[in-house]
Design brief:
Blueprint: E1 3-6, H1 16-25, E2 30-36, H2 48-55, E3 61-67, H3 75-81, E4 85-89, H4 96-108, E5 112-117, E6 135-139, H5 154-168, E7 173-177, H6 185-191, E8 195-198, H7 200-203, H8 208-216
Amino acid sequence: MIILSPSLLACDFANLESEIKKVYDSGCRYLHLDVMDGVFVNNISFGLPVISSIRKICDIVFDVHLMITEPARYIREFAEAGADIINFHVEACTSDEEIFDTLNLIKQQGKKCALTVKPDTPAEALEPFLGELDMVLVMSVEPGFGGQKFIEGSLEKIKYLAELKRLKNYSFDIEIDGGVNADNITRVKEAGANIIVAGSGIFGACDIKSAVEIFTAQT
């Protein structure tokens, strides 16, 4: 099953409730929430107050992508704010032990746990943790800003992870984020991704329902 997780960063923030309702009514059951601290990535987005506020108005899976330093500091707070999936970067931690500890913190909160790699980080960096994960996220652009061009090498990472998943009978989802559009979506899904993050391609579409259907159509 292909799941679309529209990125809230691309919506009209003056009309958050109606924007979320549009994607929900169009069939989306995930919402991708990019939290940036201006340190781990060179941009600042939104944080706990926004997530807590929109949690009150919708029953959609909050796919929270933490682009922050020392993510373990805030796991409990994001869980309490309404996150369903808490996803942090391999590169935000200084050791495997720190990554395992952070994953355990997420599980203790009863949330799904996920790990992300930047474009320059090999997929092999995820291997020690795959048995613990509900999801992996492959960044197909440099994290921090939308509107970037899709990095083709991301497809090989997805294929690698999909093959490991098959060989070892893992159950994690494979998510991709960055530059995914109608021109490359078929190759992305064929590579093995089953959760697709899209921003302007959904929130900026004239017909959101039709755009959702393009992204979620089975290959």
